[in-house]
Amino acid sequence: MRELVENEKMASYAIIKTGGKQYRAEPGVQLTLEKLPGERGEEISFDEVLFVGGDNAVIGTPTVAGASVKGTIVEQTRDKKVLIHKHKRRKNHRKTIGHRQSITRVRIESIEAGA
Question: In what order do the strands lie in the sheet with 102-112?
């Protein structure tokens, strides 16, 4: 975890929305998200912030105005393989297929609560 400087004002966590899902983001934490555009080492900003928690919690309607979460892309890769097996009884029908989802690992750097 990242230590806070005395004068630095930072929220302790935020709920962000990306890829149709919601994630809890904290500074210094690494998130595994659905594939996002960008290369390794690039800065990325999430503007769809639904909730900012900490000393002064702010709930958005639906998003918090002016709030953003900044992060850095750590890795662009693919997740573990998920096997799907289909079987129909008494019909001698068996089918196995696999799927590997493309993912992006992002390290959260800072949370700005906005107004």
Answer: 30-34, 102-112, 68-78, 43-46
Nearest alpha carbon to residue 81 among 101, 62, 61, 96: 101
- Structural domain including 36 reads 13-112
Q: Is 7 contained in some domain?
A: no
How far is 5 from 108, CA to CA, in rounded Å? 17
The pLDDT tens digits for 45-100 are 999 888 888 777 778 788 888 889 999 999 999 999 999 999 999 999 999 999 99
- Stretch 6-25: mean pLDDT, rounded? 78
Letter string b/e over residues 12-51, b meaning 16 or more CB atoms within 10 A of that residue's CB: ebbbbbbeeeebebbbeeebebeebeeeeeeebebebbbb
For 74, the token pair is 């750590």
For the chain, the domain total comes to: 1
